[in-house]
Target: Type II secretion system protein GspG C-terminal domain-containing protein
Amino acid sequence: MYTILKERKQTGFTLIELLVVIAIIGILASIALASLNTAREKAQNTNYLSQIDAYQKVFELYYSDNGFYPKSGVSATGAEYCLGEGYPNGTCWHNTGTGRSENSTFNTALKQYISALPIPAVINPSASLQGAIYKHLNSGGGYDVQYFLAGNNQNCGKGTFISNISGNTRCQIIK
Model:
């Protein structure tokens, strides 16, 4: 007796084929997410640099009207304060235990030249890197602004690169 074997038509995909397709989709997704993160970081830094530029223009307008750059307090020189207002807990800068405070007198003086003070973004919440600080310099009557950008070795715009901290770039402008 002969058994006649019928050829079975194969329908669907094998397990190996499905695993290969899933692996390819995973690789493509990881590449897309990496590109999105890079684009998001660049957009955040561009926005942040435009905020710093807006503050520099405010400082120049203040200087034009008063003959000196804004002092950090009523009569204080050399003290460092947050640029902007609305920071969590009213403090900015980084986690060295030396966070800077907002200064209402300083912010009120700046509001004469700009309708709303830009609030620099939180760059790295895990390292508490947020905002920018302003310091009126005693010598020469200039100012010092320091800020962070997301990612190492970023272009500081008009500022000068200082160092990398917690995977981010610390920048400084001295006028």
